Amino acid sequence: MPHIAVDPEKPGIIGLFDFRPETAKPLGELVEVLLRGPNSLSRGERELIGAVVSRSNDCSFCSQAHGAFAAAQLEGGSDLVERTQKDPHNAPLSDKMRALLRIALTTRDSGKSVTAEQIAAARSAGATETEIHDTVLIAAVFSLFTRYVDGLGTEAPDAPEWYAGAAQQLVQVGYPGLAGAPGGR
């Protein structure tokens, strides 16, 4: 049960954004830029970074939502996402993505723990400065969001079809369009 009075029909961060739209606006704009704006990493790859960080943070809503969003946009779909969330270091990904996920998971633990060697490995695997920057920021933002969602005790749907429906809507219209998703605001 949520720690504050949010609409029970609006799970996870959707209910929190609905509760306080003045904070939702800048947070939503940041996520739209990070996950859907122009970038050499695909939208699916960026969602995968968020999904892996969320799983590592043990946030059910964020892990399932962004896992579904990544699956809808990546070749390999939900099987690839699940394999990556379980074992990101050995998942069937490019060397660049594995290097970026190492940076993301290190950032999740502590930004100060990211090493020059990790950055060099990502560069050596073909990561650009922007990809490295955005990976760190995605990991930091998703750590913030998982603490936000879990710290206020929001509920997560226990229905994979909810996340799949939201994923299809996200692919078509982006984060602002999730307002009309099942359970959306």
Automatic annotation (TrEMBL):
Pfam families, sorted: CMD
Keywords: Oxidoreductase, Peroxidase
Matching InterPro entries: AhpD-like, CMD-like, Uncharacterised_peroxidase-rel
Segments forming domain Carboxymuconolactone decarboxylase-like: 21-72
GO terms assigned for molecular function: peroxiredoxin activity
Domain of life: Bacteria
Presence of keyword Oxidoreductase: yes
NCBIfam families, sorted: peroxid_rel (TIGR01926)
Name of the featured protein: Peroxidase-related enzyme
